[in-house]
Amino acid sequence: MRMNHFLDIHTTTAPDLRAIIDNARAMKDARKGRPRGMADDDQPLSGHMVALIFEKPSTRTRVSFDVGVRQMGGQTMVLSGKEMQLGHGETIADTARVLSRYVDLIMIRTFEEATLLEMAEHATVPVINGLTNRTHPCQIMADIMTYEEHRGPIAGKKVVWCGDGNNVFASFAHAAGQFGFDLSFTGPETLDPERTWLDFAASKGHPVTIERNPDRAVEGADLVVTDTWVSMHDPESAKERRHNQLRAYQVNEALMARAKPDALFMHCLPAHRNDEATSAVMDGPHSVIFDEAENRLHAQKAVMRWCLGR
Ligand code: CP
Ligand code: NVA
Question: 58: number of CA atoms within 13 Å, CB side?
């Protein structure tokens, strides 16, 4: 049986990423107008059991994976890391070996990337990255799908990230290399992204531009993206300092006005309204934030099919 882990955008081939996005769009089209609980016509996960493990909170990832599996005919179990032996000393490797005897697919949201990688190394079923401290590939698959639904191919477009150089930015940097768009980062030096993420995009011929001035950064942007200023893995004590550092990078109407007139605005959500982005932008004409959220469902369904070779 073919088995693919979906661990990151930079560790999946560009043709496979493209095939997943195309498949997601086809599956979305095929079920237009149906109630969410109605099954898809084909049932590629029929008889399949999927474990959804969460060591951090989640609304979108949890619900979209659960609904997606059911639409494709499979069954799910949602597990919280704390309630499993995972939180009480059993190794990740042993957990992976055990779960592989019960389920056909594992999705995990965790803290350390090492946990995800150890799970994938020892599982004999596919493992999907549902977010770590370092990356969030499923989100960016949905975001690429969303951009292309609204504006056509993302290749060659200018994408500007405002704020913290975090895990969601990392997957955008990987995607810049794989999908061939120009990515700019604007944020304070203290919250710069990791060098390795930028090196990947550069190695694919799409170096990331760093521009400290947000007004200059968004000039001519086709897409403006931001994310929460404090991520789930950041210490609560960092909050005040980060707010001070990032206030100048808020996405508001004045900043959006510097982008192209038909620029899109994205945020993976959950958002802190009027911190990283104003409500006027989030609810305004450029915003596609709820399409992004919906497309998590379709993109992840395509990811799961690819993982299982179905
Ligand atoms: N965007 C995202 O992953 O949302 P959740 O944390 O709600 O899953
Ligand atoms: N950067 C955020 C994304 C949440 C979906 C976090 O890791 O908390």
Answer: 28
pLDDT tens-digit map of 296-306: 999 999 999 99
- Residue having the nearest C-alpha atom to atom 7 of ligand 1: 59
Written as one string, the DSSP assignment of 214-281 is HHHHHTT-SEEEE--SS-TTS-GGGHHHHHHHHGGG-B-HHHHTTS-TT-EEEE-S---BTTTB-HHH
In this structure, which ligand is nearest to the CA of 276? Answer: 2
Please tell me the distance from the alpha carbon of residue 43 to that of residue 71, in angstroms, as a whole number. Answer: 8
pTM score of the predicted model: 0.97
Amino acid at 76: T
Q: Are 278 and 253 in contact (CB under 8 A)?
A: yes
Which residue in the block uniquely carries the two structure tokens 């979108």? 60
The three-state secondary structure class of 18 is helix
Residue 136 annotated as catalytic: yes
- CA–centroid distance for 224 within its chain: 16
pLDDT for residue 88 is more than 90: no
- What's the gap between Cα 273 and its chain centre? 20
Residue in the block written with tokens 């016509």: 41
